[in-house]
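Team,

Forwarding the record for the chain on the shared tracking sheet. I've put the sequence and predicted structure together so nobody has to dig through attachments.
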Amino acid sequence: MRILVFGYHNVGYVCLKELIERKENVVAVVTHKGDPSENIWFNSVYELALKSNIPVFSPTDIKGDIFFETLKNLKPEIILSFYYRYLIPENILKIPAHGAINLHGSLLPKYRGRCPVNWVLINGEKTTGVTLHYMKKSADSGDIISQQEVPISEDDDALTLFNKITEAALSLFKKTWPLIKSGNLHPIPQDPSKATYFSGRKPENGLIDWKREASEIHNLIRGVTHPYPGAFTFYKGKKLFIWKSELISDKNNINIPCGKILAANDRGIEVKAGEGHLLLKSAQFDCEEELTGKRLFERFNSMAGDILG
């Protein structure tokens, strides 16, 4: 089977690597070279394709007629998409006789769209997963081929959960690929009434609102922590990133202003939220080094009584 792969990030890397190791006929790879302004912490699909002598394209616009003809001339029999960032045009999806299949990082129909790993943490979900589904014009809405659940622990953050998603993606693809090749599939339509959609996130979306519940702030912090841009607040006009936190659920002094620094010790900085308190365990002023433990205490001990925000 002539396979055209659209892929990016670690999920794209491990799934393309699996196809290469199986000696499948990958006729070309479409990917992104990576934005120099972005923190590229993941493996390169582009480099893997080059190393494996597979033709690789990284167009900034995939809607043009010339690119369409280029892909059509490759005569792919199936398209496989793994974490490719652009919405693939319908005319390209219609090229292969065996259709186009995408691997999405959530349990569809929930969390359609961008950044599902970050959003499930921000929203305090306990379970997520990965889905293989047929692609059509609207994003992440095609019939479901197979799924695999991924539990979210209280200790998970953006990186640990993404690593779980990557492992689950590879596991699901390994189990499902022989069925895809044989055509022995029984796809299930998605229920639109259960669908949720989330858009991409920008660094400025990480601003902490101290009037929110401590649990919500904690979920935001772990949902956008390293290697993502991070949650942040301000101290006397200076930007302060919060990389790790812990809930203090047994306290809720309603007469204390939200964002007030109550105390600091070797474990972190205690701050009042809209409901409950939060222990900030790792913090970093803009253009300075990240502080934890004793060094965090030494920097913030004198700030008790001041307000963040």
